[in-house]
Design brief:
The chain has 120 residues and is α+β, with helices and mostly antiparallel strands. It has 3 helices and 6 strands, in the order H-E-E-H-E-E-E-H-E. Strands 2-5-4-3-1-6 form a 6-stranded antiparallel beta sheet.
Length: 120
């Protein structure tokens, strides 16, 4: 009898704990519009941008300052093993980033926290 009561109590505890947890990426969905803010330091730390040599090799202009105040749309959301939410972004107007890359990625939680990505 003692084992059954312990089992029932632990199941109730699991259900209650699970009901109170909120998913990490509940505030972001595919199609959400965001705006790229200023870099948190000299360069963007949480936006995963291509290196300058890859931009130049593909015929683009490596000007990271041109990203400021761009409106972007979330096209894909992935959660890593560490619990970090990584989003894939494309420009709202359909152009390519740096005239060479159609999408970029960002660590969503850290980028919003450092105001590299701003919610509209």
């Amino acid at each position: 009898m003692k084992k059954i009561i312990t089992l029932v109590m632990s199941l109730c505890l699991v259900v209650v704990l699970h009901a109170n947890t909120k998913p990490l990426n509940s505030d972001i969905k595919v199609g959400t519009e965001l705006r790229i803010g200023e870099a948190s330091s000299a360069t963007y730390q949480h936006l995963i941008l291509p290196k300058k040599n890859f931009i130049i090799k593909r015929g683009g202009l490596a000007n990271y300052k041109s990203l400021k105040n761009l409106t972007v749309v979330v096209t894909d959301i992935n959660t890593n093993k560490n619990g970090n939410v990584e989003v894939t972004l494309k420009r709202k107007n359909g152009k390519r980033f740096f005239n060479s890359h159609p999408t970029i990625k960002a660590n969503y939680n850290k980028a919003v926290e450092q105001k590299e990505l701003l919610k509209k």
